Amino acid sequence: AATRSHRLLVDTLGYRPPAGDAGADGQEYDIYILNLQRGLYGYTDPEAPAPGDTGRYATYLAVDNNFFATEGYFTHGLDALRVTVAHEYFHAVQFNYRYRDEDRFFFETSSVWFEDVAYDEVNDYFGYMRSFFRNTSLPLNTQNNSHEYGSGIWLHYLTKRFDIEIVRQIWEQIEGTPSLTATSQVLADRAYTFSEVIAEFSRWMYFTGYRADPVRYFPEGASYPLVTLDLRQITQSVIADSLPNLAARFYRFDRVMQAQGIAHVSDDQPGRWRFTTINGTSQLNYLSQKSIGGAPLCVQPVTAADTLVVIVNNTIVVRIHLVNG
Description:
three-stranded mixed beta sheet, alpha/beta, single chain
């Protein structure tokens, strides 16, 4: 599994190899098999700064010695070992770019994504999806020992929407700037803004479960849970609510029988807000519109449809969002 991960990351995708540890215990990369606490798949730790470059580290990784336990793991047996090694080996690669505490979420986001790149048939990452889809009002860069693992689908979105090279390009920028800024820079190089892209990502999140379309949206979206919708009555003229940076909220309005004017009244930074409307009853007749700030939309109901979903995004990039878990 380590050899496969190295060949894929370094030889095929063009990432740097893990930093060396000056030959301690031999030239090989050090992997330890340990009796870890139940439910801990493995970990990667820095052991020494890489020579001459602050923020880069040599590392070792450890994996559990028993993935056949019946509790504590989404996946069991050798498949669990394989995706764990892939996950942790990508961490070893990441430490040879730049480590910042505020980027820990992107370390996990990237490694969970790579599990599925290395072993597409295993799908251990499905285990993180339910919490992620229930908590869209948490910022994308939340670090609470849960959300950052579920956000691996952010990179599934980016690689499907653009190409697989985009993740490496972000890591190459991380050496000089934090991961969110790096992502913004890479998207700008492709003539896209972070704001429009993260709003589109939220729209993709609606099309999972029975609404999935693997051609247009997530290839494995049929296996993802449905996003949590905040049910509101259409008669409400004003909704008082709040939303932190890099978060989304999904509102569902029922009994939409005629054209509805919807305006989002935001704060003194209307450019941070994007909202998307989706109405319809099937993949064949879903209609979607989008707008920025307080710009109004007139939503026309689809024939035989009486449900309207409004996705609100606060798209401002912030440096870090920590949650005590």
